[in-house]
Design brief:
single chain; about 80 residues; mainly alpha
Amino acid sequence: MSRALYFLLVLLCFELGVVLVFLPWTQWWERNYFLRLYPELIPWALSPFSRGAVTGLGVLDIFIAAGAAVSRGPSKRGSRK
């Protein structure tokens, strides 16, 4: 994997993590297409437990991105010259 692709992967993981941390606590989470289409999901989607679970996944994703950024980057094992 090239360095540019690895950088984009780390950046994508970080951005996805930030979105998952903040999105459950916004109005977009409460007023979305799927909740209007399936109103039986409203109690589950608006419960603090599910919002916290999605936020926890976002924090985990940020930690994964940080760990990948701190590591030496893509592995050179098995690559041909």
